[in-house]
Amino acid sequence: MKSKLVLLLILFITIKGFGQQAVPSKIKTVKVYRQNAQISRSANLSLKPGRQNIVLTGISTSIDPASLQVKVSNAKQVGLLSAKYERNYLLPKKQNPKVVALQKSLDKLNKELSWIAEQKQVLKGMADILNKNQDLGGKTGFTPTQVIALTTAYKNKMLEIKKEDMKLSSQEKVKREAYNKIEQQLQELNANKNKPSGNIVLQFDVVATSNIKLQCQYLVSNAGWHPTYDLRSKGIQKNVKLYYKAKVYQQTGQDWKNVKLSISTGNPARNNNRPILTPLYAHFGYAYKSLSQPARGATTNMMAVDKKEKVSEDYEEAYRYNAQKSENQLNVVYKITNKQDIISDGKPNLVALKTYEMPTKYIYHSVPKLDQSAFLLAKISQWSKYNLISGQANIFFEGAYVGKTNINAGVTTDTLLVSMGRDANIVVKRRTIDKYTKTQFLSNDKKVRFGYEISIKNKKSTPIDIEVLDQIPVSQNSKIKITLEESDGAGYNEKIGKLLWKLKILPGKSKKVHFVYTVKYPKKKVVTGIR
Hints:
The protein is an alpha+beta fold and 531 residues long. Among the domains are: 2-25 and 42-93 and 196-216, Immunoglobulin-like (Sandwich); 94-126 and 163-193; 427-522, Sandwich (Immunoglobulin-like). The protein is built from three helices and 28 strands. It has helices at 2-17, 97-132, 144-189; strands at residues 20-23, 26-32, 35-47, 50-59, 63-72, 78-88, 197-206, 210-233, 240-250, 256-264, 311-312, 324-327, 332-335, 340-342, 349-358, 360-367, 371-381, 391-397, 400-407, 415-422, 426-432, 438-441, 445-458, 464-471, 481-486, 491-493, 498-505, 510-522. The strands form four sheets. Strands 2, 3, 5, 8, 9, 10, 11, 12, 13, 14, 15, 18 and 19 form a 13-stranded mixed sheet that branches. The chain has a six-stranded mixed sheet with strand order 20-17-16-24-27-26, with no helix packed on it. Strands 21, 22, 23, 25 and 28 form a five-stranded antiparallel sheet that branches.
């Protein structure tokens, strides 16, 4: 307590010595960017005529001094001459009530552990005395009965000491574990305790006595947010609902208590200098033969599917999605309706932004070459108009947790594909057709023929639309010739070898499709990646 009073006295003398007036201020609004955050502080001042310095204390050391802006309510009577930021190492830190309570618990446990150690030390001394006097050999005057009585007394006392020692050790273990947990929690809470704070020093030229409202805005680092999404569907007759949230974090050294919070998709930390195109000069150089070659058997990833099993989770969305969305020329801002508390601990705080019902068409999708299952896909159209940011999304279908997917805001297509999981009522099989599979030897070449059949059975009580995707190899050598002989109505992309069937199957019915292709190459060569 005395040390705090001394620090306050030093601070008071320092401020008075330089003709400065310390004024309390509060954080009123915070705009959080993808990186960094804009803080807005306000204070009420009563100023007398003349020049004077006003000091706003408790400013985060993460401030960008170049971003400081100051507004006053009575600019005609009060003129701002200068504004600057400076470090303040003298201001005492405000005690966190949680830290105080935990520290008291820690002190109590420390005393109890010390008392247990003292008792164990006494027991050890008693055991040492008994051990030193247990040897009766060489001593006379003891009858056998007396010896038995002495050994029995030794045994009973030593067992009593051991029992008490074990009891104390058990108590010590419990208290030590509690001590370590509290100590770890204290270390986390005290992460910012010894960080210095700063001051904003404002110099005013006042014409007449004035009561003014002061507002300071500035940018701080060690803060930002990440997007996270929930995609929820109640069935194939319903549109997908997207729940948009922000994971807000800050470790600025100052807690944001009861502030008006807004989330911006902007990022002032990025380089905002426009790129300059310089002349491209051609000149003679050396030619080097590239050693890198395209990977053989490389495939194009048409659809990334999360293969996690469904985990049942009857969950109703509890967040209030009532943020006010506004767009300006460069970014989107979400103003959160309810005031927020964001503690300076670096931990993410989930803040609800918006919910959207997105036009959805459902279709089944299967790639039997890789996985003989049918996956339900949600095709979400017009999704780019929602100004989303790339991030991870949790998928829920009919009350069950399906898995995770990634929303890529950088794609140019207007349809987002989301896998809602496997459907066990659709059976997909892929097999080799023996009558089409054969090998021919020509004069200098070898010709190999392959054929495959895919069957799909709909065990559901409703008709289904399903896409079936397969492939044939693509040649990267003029001496390897690949020909698609039969496609059974599939759409064929020759460049990547993709075969795509779009089928409609009635309840309880099955459909089969097949494809056949040949590979011709020099018979003395070995070719891989052809099936």
